[in-house]
Structures are given as C-alpha cells and as structure tokens.
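Suppose you are handed a protein chain with no further information: no name, no annotation, nothing but its sequence. What can you learn? This example shows the usual starting point.
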Amino acid sequence: MSTGSGADSAPAPIPDDSTVTDAATAPPTGTKGTAAESRGGMFRSLRVRNYRLFATGQVVSNTGTWMQRIAQDWLVVSITGSSAAVGITTALQFLPMLLFGLYGGVIADRVSKRKLLLVTQASMGLTGLVLAVLTLSGNVAVWHVYLMAFVLGLITVVDNPARQAFVAEMVGPDDLRNAVSLNSANFQSARLIGPAVAGALITSLGSGWAFLLNGLSFLAPLAGLLLMRSGELHTVDRAPRGKGQLREGVRYVAGRPELIWPIVLIGFIGTFGFNFPIWLTAFADKIFHGGAGMYAWFNGLMAVGSLAGALLAARRSTSRLRLLVGAALLFGVLEMAAALSPTAWVFGALLIVVGVVGLTINVTANSSVQMATDPLMRGRVMSLFMMVFMGGTPLGAPLVGWVTDAYGARIGFLAGGLVSALAAAGVGLVLTRAGGLRVRIDLRRGHQHVRFVPRERDGEPERLAAAA
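A reasonable first move is to predict its three-dimensional structure. Written in structure tokens, the prediction is:
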C-alpha cells in the first residue's frame, strides 16, 4: 500500500467529457484496481491468507455478538417491560463512541492495529462472560446490563477504527472495496445464525447461555490474529505522536465535501433510522403479540436482506455518492411502509428489503469514505465516521424509545423513516449544488434515463463530481 499523500485511495479526476461515468471513480493511476477487480470475482479478497483468517474469526464472534444482542434486548424487556429501557441500553452502548470516538482514531493511527485488536477482542469476550455469570447465577439486574453495555461501548471506541483500518493493511488498496463488502456479508451471515440460536436458547434455557457462548466466541478472532503472517501485511506509516491530531482529522474531513456530506447523511440514518432493537421488540411484543422467537425471526429476515445487499455490493466495482443518497431515500420510504404493515408477514417481507437497502447504505458510505482518504488519516477519518454513525444512537435511541412508548410502535417507526428520507433529500441537494452538477433526463430507449452531469470543471466541484 502506498504511504504517500493518499493517491492510492482518492477518487480519480473525472474525464473531460460531458457525462459522469463509472470510470470517474476508477482506482487512481498506478494501482491495479481494475485488473484486480476482474480477477477472483465476488470473493476475491479471500485469496489473501491473512484476510481469510480474519474473516473466519469474525464470522464466529459476530454470531456470538448477535446472540448477545438479542438476549440483551429481550432480557431488558423482560425485567422492565419498557421499550425506553431498551433504548437506554442501546444509548449507553454507543455513548462512549459519541464522547471519545475521535480519540480511538488517534490511537488506531499511532499503534499496531493487529496488537490493538488482540486487546480489544479479548476485552469484548470478557464482557460477555461477566453477563453470563450474573445471569446464570440469578443475580442479574437491569443496571448490570446498562454497565456492561457502557463498558462494551468504551472498548468499541478503539476496536472499531482499528478494525476498519486494518482491512486495508490485510488486502491493500486493490481489494479494499471488495473486502469492506465481504466484511458486511460476514456480519450479516452471522446475523442469520445468531438470532435463531439466541431465540432457541432464550426460550429453552435462558439468556445466560447466549451470553456465555458469545464470550467464548471471541477465541476465534484471537486465534486468527495470532496466526497471521506479519510479513504479508501491507505497510502503512503510523502517525507520529503530536499535538493537534484530533483537530487535524476534523479539518481534513471538513474541507472535503466528498467526505463530510456522506458522514452527515450516515449520521442522520444512524441516529434516527437504525433503531431496530427498539422497533422490532415493540412490534414483536405489542403489535403482533409474539415473543422472543418472533423478535429473533424479524432479525433473521433483516439479516437475509442485509446479506443479499452485502453480496450485491461485493460485485460492484465503484461506490458512488448518488447510490448512497438514492438508497438512503428509499430506505426511509421503506421504513414508513413497514410501519404501516397490517400483518406480521407483510412486515417481515418489508424487513428483507429494508435489510438490502440499509446494507447498501452502510457499505457504500464506508467504502467511498475509505477510498477517498489519505492512508495516514484513515484511522481518524473512520473514527469520525463511526462516531457519527454509532455515536448518534445515544441521542436518537432514548428519543425514539420514548416516542415508541408514548405514541406506539407504528408512529415511532414511521418517524424514523421520515427523518431518514428527509435527510437523504437534503444531502442530495447539497451534494448536487456543491459538485456543480445538474440532472439530465433522457427518455430514449437504450439510454440512461436519469444521470448527473457537471456544470463546471475546476477545483472542488470537479473532485466531488468524480465521486457522485
């Protein structure tokens, strides 16, 4: 991987013609992105041994994580009977990201990401084991769940940017976009298994066993990290210690519309549109009068859609901002439709589509931001990305939980979809103006009916047009 000023990860300039084509975001001169993308297909990143070890460990621990997530949400509902309490648990888990997220990025840019992940993954496993002991002994209280959620959030502050940036060290710039998509597919594959196993365990043995299995599942990523070959990792210069590195990261993002506006959009979606633990527990319990099994089933259906979305993303060779904005707008509309579903079957079917579109948003935003970032800044940029995406939850989850309790699950879900759709429309207009773009409509057969074309050719509009 290049250790220069970011040429290997920035979008290429737009060609000097009248249209914005997919070639505009091809890998920059000097990389082998196009050739690499034509070899190996959808799963080409798995040719890399270190990445195979990483992916194998992650699918095991991700399965455990989903088991714990289902068990945790249902345990809180069982103890308190409140959707707002689930919102508080979710908020506490993501509050550290809001408060300390940028510091995690600075740490990830300074130290060995592999060694850092060994510490964070082991610590995450311990939180699951502590909850298992408390629950299986019959001594668990809701404040225990709150505390462990907050501790897990503190660990995530460092783990998330390190894990996001470490992907580039494993596969290099050529396969980065594909690896990001496969990471999402990995996570969603585990989401298919974890909720189903958790639902069976909760109904037959109790939540404690789900916590125990999650704690033990972290042995797999730890083994994968230890078995990696250091000599096969792509070398990336570490940021030296110095003052003002937080401000430097913020200024870097603020000066680039192709970074700041996708992060703003993902912030709105994460804060108001991704509160599924609150909505799905409420729909399973109060709208359709199911139990933990129905809640796990809803999560499984979303996972089916998300897995399909991740695999589709792995086939794409570009991450365009227009796709991000369009998917976010559709996501909001689908959430509003799901909120009005008359039956559990219609609701479940819409959750599959919501999963496809939601995953498309996540992968497109993640990969486009990473590809447009200088490698030396990637830890800080991704920490800001995750801070906005996940850190908004402490603000949105209690509010959404209160709305859901006060006005019903349908109104809560409807409100989240409406905010997401409005945010997508607003960011889309800003990006169009900032990029000096205009919409061209061509209704002739065989032509692209709607496309964006540039109005001007120099400075920031040109760079933003290349990513649009």
